[in-house]
C-alpha cells in the first residue's frame, strides 16, 4: 500500500511525496507523471524491498501497515480507460483469417505490410479479470442464401492478446515520434478480446468490427512496467517492404513472453486445460503502433489502452483463437477428458496467464479470467 509509505518517495530527480499519486483509486495520475517519474518510483521500491535496506525490513509496524496479503486484496480495473484501440499485428493470425475468408491468394490485404492496422474499440466494456461475460445477441447470416437472423451468438470466441497502457500522452495535433514512443508506453497487461464471430462476419463490411467485439474485453489487473520487461526484449520481426521512415526503429521492442490459455467447462469438476505455449509473434511493435496512432495528430491520454490483436504463431499449437484452432468451426478442439469445443459454451471459464522466464526468476502478469453467462432473452 503505497499510501502508507508515500513520504519515502523523495528521489534525486522528483519529490513525489506531495503529489499523492498513490492515494488515487486508479493509476492514471501516476501514468501522467511521465517516463522519468515511473523509473524513479520503481527504483525507490526496489531499494525499499531489498534485503539490505532497513527502512521496511526493521520496522515491523510500518511493514505490517504497508503490506497487504494478496489473498485479501480485491483487484480492480487498474486505470480509468478513456479510449481503447485494438490492432491486428500478428502476421500469422492475419494470414489465417484472410485464408478462411478470402483464400490464400488474398490472405493479407494490400495495406497490412505497410502500416499497423487497427480499429477503435469500446472502452466502457473493458473489464477486470474475474468479471463474467454475457453471451451477446445480434444479427447473423449462417445461411448465405437466406436473410439474416437474430439471436444469441453461436460462435463465441477468445482472442489471446496483450495490451499496453499509455502514459504521459501528447497534445492534439502533435504526433509522438517513434524515437520517443517508449516514453509514452507505461506497461503491459494480458487481454482476452472476446469475439462473436458469427455477428462479426455479417457486420464487418465495410467499416469493420462493431457489436461482435464491443460486448466485453477482459484484462489482467496487474500492469507490468516496461522497465521490468526490457531484459526479455528480442529482435523485432524482419519487415519487408521496409516501413516508411516514421515507423522505423532499430532497437529491440518485441518481448519473449510465455502465454497460456486454459478452458474449464461448467460440466467439469476439475480444470481440464487446453494450455498452449506462445511466444510473442508480432510483426508490428508497440512503438510502431503508438507512432502510427498519433502520426495524424491524434492525441492519446494517460490510461488509454492499446492492444496487440490476436497473437498467433505459425503452427496450430500456437494459434491464439478458437476460430483458428477449429478452423472456422470445421473441426473440434480436443480439451482432454472427453471434452471438445469448436467455440465457447455457456459456463465455460477461460483463463489466460503469462510470464517472462529469467535466470532463476519470473516476471508474471497475473490471471486474465472470465466465465460465459447465458444470453439474455429478447
Topology:
Blueprint: H1 28-32, H2 35-48, H3 54-57, H4 60-66, E1 84-87, H5 91-102, E2 118-120, E3 126-128, E4 133-134, E5 137-140, E6 149-152, E7 156-157, E8 160-166, E9 185-192, E10 195-196, H6 197-203, E11 217-219, E12 224-225, H7 226-229, E13 233-234, E14 254-255, E15 258-264, H8 286-294, E16 305-307, H9 322-325, E17 333-336, E18 339-341, E19 349-357, E20 362-364, E21 368-373
Separation of the first and last Cα atoms: 45 Å
Tell me the total number of β-strands: 21
**Average pLDDT rating:** 93
What string, H for helix and E for strand, traces the elements in order?
Answer: HHHHEHEEEEEEEEEHEEHEEEHEHEEEEE
Query: What is the CATH topology classification name of the largest domain?
Result: Fumarylacetoacetate hydrolase, domain 2
CATH superfamily label of the largest domain: Fumarylacetoacetase-like, C-terminal domain
Assign the CATH architecture of the largest domain: Alpha-Beta Complex
Walkthrough of the structure:
With 378 residues, the protein is of the alpha+beta class. The protein contains nine helices and 21 strands. The protein has two domains: 6-72, Fumarylacetoacetase, N-terminal domain (SH3 type barrels, Roll), CATH 2.30.30.230; 84-373, Fumarylacetoacetate hydrolase, domain 2. Helices cover 17% and strands 22% of the residues. The radius of gyration is 22 Å and the shape is globular. The termini are far apart. The relative contact order is 0.18. The mean pLDDT is 93. This is Fumarylacetoacetase.
Amino acid at each position: 500500500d503505497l499510501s502508507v509509505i508515500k513520504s519515502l518517495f523523495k528521489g534525486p530527480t522528483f519529490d513525489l511525496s506531495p503529489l499523492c499519486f498513490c492515494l488515487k483509486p486508479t493509476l492514471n495520475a501516476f501514468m501522467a507523471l511521465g517516463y522519468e517519474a515511473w523509473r524513479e518510483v520503481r527504483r525507490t521500491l526496489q531499494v525499499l524491498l531489498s534485503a539490505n535496506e532497513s527502512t521496511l525490513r526493521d520496522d515491523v509496524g510500518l511493514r505490517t501497515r504497508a503490506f497487504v496479503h494478496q489473498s485479501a486484496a480485491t483487484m480492480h480495473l487498474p486505470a480509468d480507460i478513456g479510449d481503447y484501440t485494438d490492432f491486428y499485428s500478428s502476421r500469422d493470425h492475419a494470414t489465417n483469417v484472410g485464408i478462411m475468408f478470402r483464400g490464400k491468394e488474398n490472405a493479407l490485404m494490400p495495406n497490412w505490410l505497410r502500416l499497423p492496422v487497427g480499429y477503435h474499440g469500446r472502452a466502457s466494456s473493458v473489464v477486470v479479470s474475474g468479471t463474467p461475460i454475457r453471451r451477446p445477441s445480434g444479427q447473423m447470416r449462417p445461411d448465405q442464401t437466406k436473410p439474416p437472423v437474430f439471436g444469441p451468438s453461436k460462435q463465441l470466441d477468445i482472442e489471446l492478446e496483450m495490451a499496453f497502457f499509455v502514459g504521459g500522452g501528447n497534445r492534439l495535433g502533435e504526433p509522438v515520434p517513434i524515437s520517443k514512443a517508449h516514453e509514452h508506453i507505461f506497461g503491459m497487461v494480458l487481454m482476452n478480446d472476446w469475439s462473436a464471430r458469427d455477428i462479426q462476419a455479417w457486420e464487418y463490411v465495410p467499416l469493420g468490427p462493431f457489436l461482435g467485439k464491443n460486448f466485453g474485453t477482459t484484462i489482467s489487473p496487474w500492469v507490468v512496467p516496461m522497465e521490468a520487461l526490457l531484459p526479455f526484449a528480442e529482435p523485432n520481426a524482419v519487415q519487408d517492404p521496409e516501413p516508411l521512415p516514421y515507423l522505423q526503429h532499430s532497437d529491440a521492442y518485441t518481448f519473449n513472453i510465455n502465454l497460456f490459455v486454459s478452458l474449464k467447462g461448467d460440466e467439469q469438476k476439475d480444470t481440464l486445460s487446453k494450455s498452449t505455449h506462445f511466444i510473442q509473434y508480432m510483426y508490428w511493435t508497440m512503438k510502431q503502433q503508438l507512432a502510427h496512432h498519433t502520426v495524424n495528430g491524434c492525441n492519446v491520454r494517460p490510461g488509454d489502452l492499446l492492444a496487440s490483436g490476436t497473437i498467433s504463431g505459425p503452427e496450430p499449437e500456437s494459434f491464439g483463437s478458437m476460430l483458428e484452432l477449429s478452423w472456422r468451426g470445421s473441426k473440434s478442439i480436443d480439451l482432454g477428458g472427453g471434452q471438445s469445443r469448436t467455440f465457447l459454451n455457456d459456463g465455460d471459464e477461460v483463463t489466460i496467464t503469462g510470464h517472462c522466464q529469467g535466470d532463476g526468476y519470473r516476471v508474471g502478469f497475473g490471471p486474465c479470467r472470465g466465465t460465459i453467462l447465458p444470453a439474455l432473452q429478447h
